[in-house]
Amino acid sequence: MRHIPRKRFGQHFLADESIVGAIIAGIAPQPRDVMVEIGPGLGALTRPLAQKLNHLHVIEIDRELIARLQTEFPSARVTVHAGDALEFDFSALDAPLRVVGNLPYNISTPLLFHLAHHAAAVRDIHVMLQKEVVERMIAPPSTSDYGRLSVMLQYRFTLERVLDVPAAAFSPVPKVESAVVRLTPFSQLPYLARDEAVFGKIVTAAFSQRRKILRNALRGYFDGADFERLGVDAGLRAQDLAVADFVRMANSAART
Length: 256
Known about the structure:
9 strands; elongated; alpha/beta; about 20% strand; seven-stranded mixed β-sheet; single chain
């Protein structure tokens, strides 16, 4: 039966076989990999993954699609987890876990942060996102795309753009271009935040008003003497700081 895409789930289904092949090649699944696919939809990636893996986990929220997946794929090969990926406990699956998926654009950022929370159990992540989100994820400091998302993800992962995906590769055709990005957790964090909650608050405050200089954006955390002691120019804006700078400031704030 024909499935009518649901706007509330941000459904745009991958329909270009050449793009599917390129994504699978980029993932390079091996039979014994423990892999979970987020948002399998109509199964464009699920089918080739299930052919290459001994077993595949998928997470789907749409009840109609859940029924289709359970009908098409035997449970011995594909386990369908019904529910919201934002609430899924990825750490409950065997580690090291490989995560793949075409993420709904409307929840991509919170879902990336949710995956980051489970990074210790993850080997790598291959996800397709709106191209501008990927550009923000991989952006270096002192660029217009560099922001809170860049810092929070680059703190925990190495990131690599795998391939661009044109809007015409989807049905229905979205209004934006997409890209696939690979996130690989650091085996050992290069810069360790003493308190990651404080680190997150510092980064959020610094980027809350991008045009503000640090002296004003972070006045609730640091004064002029603090910036001087930390070796940070208080006249800079948040986009000019590297991840290491944010970690250093957060560790200072965590001591007080």
